[in-house]
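Translate structure to sequence.
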């Protein structure tokens, strides 16, 4: 487990799937995801079964928040498309529990994933994509330290209109500089 101040990251369990299905069928939650069709429990079980085939460093992690003496599942995150040769990866998170939106859990989770990526996985560069209308996620990524590096114009068609996809990244040197500023 990876434990932060208010968040912990753990392996995904089959028991998590009903919440994932609920979140991934919520139009507000998937607005920032490349999902546009309804998802069934069977679809999510198939996804879970295929997790055994992916490299350990790319397995998704459950995002839980501390509530009293227990932990509550609120989302998941992972690194994917890891290039060991280039020491680069894409990162993504979803906070599916709308009751905790805007409370800094996404920023804390992203900071924890960055620390894991740079310090454990020995990555040099971490990047993500985010849709231009996902202002809450963009704000969380900026607060975590991501830098805007590119824009794919009218790359996403969603609900009758085209949106730009933004590319944001974080380099190891920026992570190290951020760490020395916090000390």
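Result:
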């Amino acid at each position: 487990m990876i434990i932060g101040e208010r968040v912990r990251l753990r392996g995904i369990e089959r028991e998590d799937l009903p919440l994932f299905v609920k979140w991934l069928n919520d139009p507000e939650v998937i607005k920032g995801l490349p999902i546009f069709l309804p998802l069934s429990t069977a679809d999510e079980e198939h996804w879970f079964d295929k997790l055994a085939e992916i490299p350990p460093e790319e397995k998704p992690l459950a995002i839980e928040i501390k509530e009293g003496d227990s932990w509550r599942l609120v989302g998941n995150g992972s690194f994917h498309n890891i290039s060991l040769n280039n020491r680069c990866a894409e990162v993504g998170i979803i906070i599916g529990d709308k009751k905790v939106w805007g409370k800094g859990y996404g920023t804390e989770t992203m900071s924890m994933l960055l620390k894991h990526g740079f310090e454990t996985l020995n990555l040099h560069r971490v990047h993500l994509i985010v849709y231009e209308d996902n202002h809450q996620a963009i704000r969380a990524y900026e607060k975590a330290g991501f830098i805007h590096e590119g824009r794919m114009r009218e790359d996403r068609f969603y609900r009758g209109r085209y949106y730009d996809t933004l590319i944001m990244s974080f380099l190891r040197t920026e992570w190290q500089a951020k760490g020395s500023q916090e000390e």
